[in-house]
Amino acid sequence: MGLAGDREAARRRWLRAGVHGAVIGIEVQPGDRVAAGQVLLVQEAMKMEVPLEAPAAGRVCAIDAAVGEVADEGAALIEFEAGAEAEGEAAAAATTASVAAARGAEPGAERASLARLRARRALTLDAARPDAVARRHASGLRMARENIAALLDAGSFTEYGAFAVAAQRSRRPVEELQRQTPADGLVTGSGSVEGRPVAVMAYDYTVLAGTQGVLNHRKSDRLLELCHRHRWPLVLWAEGGGGRPGDVDWPGVAGLDCTTFARLAALSGQVPLVGIVAGRCFAGNAALLGCCDLVVAVEGASIGMGGPAMIEGGGLGRVDAADVGPVDTLARVGVIDVRVPDEAAAARAARHYLGLVGAPRLPMSAATPPGADPATLRDALPENRNALYEPRRVVEAVMDAGSVIELRREWGTGVITALARLEGRAVAVAASNPRHLGGALDAPACDKLARFMQLADAHGLPLVSFVDTPGFMVGPDSEKTAMVRHAARLFVNAAALRVPVASVVLRRGYGLGAMALTAGHFHAPVATCAWPSGEFGPMGLEGAVRLGFRKELEAAPAGEREVLFQRLLAEAVQRGEALNMASHLEIDDVIDPADTRAWLARVLASACAAPLPPRRGFIDAW
């Protein structure tokens, strides 16, 4: 063989099968000039088409394969000579066409599958239903996707299950369902709030009245399982009419094996749960809402375990949807934690709450100043020991400016409960409210505080209490409310607290009520202090004098009894003053009111250093 023959042999080689599979197409013939990357032959393996491409520009010398034959991996299929010039633009065009043909598309054209995807996804978005959007906005409310966008960090939303439609394919055309029941009336997904992950579920009232269908229950379960697995907080927009009787594409009868409610309830105390409602929220939607840590209601909302149709069907008469469970009523009975004017405010409240429970400690550089000059606390209480004052001003002055969010303001008003930050640390705050029953703890106040303790403990928030109480509410009317059980809740819940407690007695620290406000007794908190105005006793001092000195008072002449009473009361006040209490070590310190914020910050810095112990079970008294 001459030199030219040697060079030609060196350029020639056999192209071999990359897989074991049948030859389903031969795209060239011997003698054809081809461009680099041009498809020469196609095999099928495991239902996938595997092309054999030219490694460079060159010529096909021979083909040792036939369509239908099965070639082993590595088998020689095509003899190829590299370096032979392809025929310019024609060869390049042939290469492009060959590759495009292998991919099933014309050169430069969008694939049909991608076009179908774009068209189908467009139907899931609000822009596809301008009439529904217009009606929703005309009612003063947002679309579900608008609410999600207002809550989450921009660009962070990943949707789950967008292509679901109502389970009604056996009674309605699929195309109609795609247009009219996008996402099966429930938008679900994950995103972030201030960089921290959060899951979202928003019932879409413009789709079948936000009812709960077969597939949107499956979507809920999928997301709730992810919340459990990844410890994602959940924000739920719960507006909707409950179960949907029109879904027929499933083999069940009543659907009472639905797991959504149990799954969401199982997250309670494990991750933060925020429920938001505007408009109508009935039956199953309301049941989910009620499981949330924080229930935020927009003015005009109506919430109930049954809507007008269910009420009428139960023989209970006709009622307007707005009258089932209006905000005014439900705020007074404790259903609603935060009442807001509109959905924009609801999103802000949710972000505020998630910011507190999602980031318990901010860097010191991010801490804000107090809500008021600490020196103003010296005048927060009147000199008259029986005069009223506003305890919320104390809370706001001690806590970081703008950080306080009060919960259930209109219910259980004998105690104020709020979340806030103290020098950047998220805390739970409970404060006696002398403006209601003089600060006595009645049954609603006990329930409010017991549940608040559970909330604080579940999310690892230390509890700060400001105490000014005459004790538990007593008397025949009080006992008709099962007061014994409600009061006991505070001791049972306090005994199971894992988070540290710090207590400040502002004025009256009387009896069992004061003990309940300090996690069971004055030495249960990591530290208990009092302002100089603090006064203490096993019960209200006036009552203690009248009861303890009844014989002396009855024996005194009628004209001298009041003088004797006032003298004995003055002695009791002196004996129960804060400094004397501290000298007997029943409290840990007496502080200048202006030092309250700094004292609490020091106490919590030490108390919060250790990890929390495991939770223990207990039987709630009520």
Mean pLDDT: 92
CATH superfamily of the largest domain: 2-enoyl-CoA Hydratase, Chain A, domain 1
Low-confidence stretches: 86-90
* Helix content percent band: 25-40%
CATH class of the largest domain: Alpha Beta
- CATH names the topology of the largest domain as 2-enoyl-CoA Hydratase, Chain A, domain 1
- Tell how many strands the DSSP assignment holds: 25
**Alpha carbon gyration radius:** 37 Å
Number of structural units classed as domains: 4
SSE-based structural type: alpha/beta
The backbone outline, from C-alpha atoms, is elongated
Question: From the 3D coordinates, which CATH architecture of the largest domain would you assign?
Answer: Alpha-Beta Complex
Contiguous helical run count = 22
Classify the beta-strand content into a percent band: 15-25%
**Straight-line N-to-C gap:** 104 Å
Task: Describe the protein's architecture and organization.
- It is a single chain.
- By secondary structure, the chain is an alpha/beta fold.
- It has four domains: 3-109, OB fold (Dihydrolipoamide Acetyltransferase, E2P), CATH 2.40.50.100; 118-352, 2-enoyl-CoA Hydratase, Chain A, domain 1, CATH 3.90.226; 366-534 and 577-607, Alpha-Beta Complex (2-enoyl-CoA Hydratase, Chain A, domain 1); 540-576.
- Strands 18, 19, 20, 21, 22, 23, 24 and 25 form an eight-stranded mixed β-sheet that branches.
- Strand 11 (196-203), helix 7 (214-230) and strand 12 (234-237) form a beta-alpha-beta unit.
- Helix 14 packs parallel to helix 16 and helix 18 packs across helix 20.
- The longest helix has 17 residues, at 214-230.
- 41% of the residues are buried.
